Amino acid sequence: MGIPTWDFGEIQEDWEAIWDQLDDLNLEGKIVALYGLGDQLGYGEWFLDALGMLHDKLSTKGVKFVGYWPTEGYEFTSPKP
Predict the structure, then answer these.
(1) Domain assignment present for 78
(2) Sign of the CA dihedral with 6 first, then 8, 25, and 33 last
(3) CATH number for the domain harbouring residue 39
(4) Which of 3, 14, 25, 28 would bridge 62 by S-S if both were Cys, CB 3.0 to 4.6 A apart?
(5) What's the rounded Cα separation, in Å, for the pair 12 and 69?
């Protein structure tokens, strides 16, 4: 699943329209790989915030994440956890 960070660290409008519907999905045991889109240099303060938001949302659904990538070499300055 892919998601871009939009505006100032938010989810894009098309994701916003279905965001709450994710709560109703039965994803228990599903294998999920996530990727995010963002501009680290121009928007370092919000770089990949939406990816973290999607990860947090799906982690409560019992999914198994695959494909974690090291964060070394990237700069994150977002106030979001």
Answers:
(1) no
(2) positive
(3) 3.40.50.360
(4) 28
(5) 23
pLDDT at 80 over 90: no
Q: Are 10 and 50 in contact (CB under 8 A)?
A: yes
pLDDT in tens, 2-38: 999 888 888 999 999 999 999 999 999 999 999 988 7
Note down the domain range covering 11.
2-65
What is the count of structural domains for the chain? 1
80, 52 Cβ separation under 8 angstroms: yes
Q: Residue 75's closest CA among 36, 46, 52, 44?
A: 44
Lowest model confidence (mean pLDDT) among 16-20, 62-66, 76-80: 76-80
Considering the entire predicted model, what is its pTM? 0.85
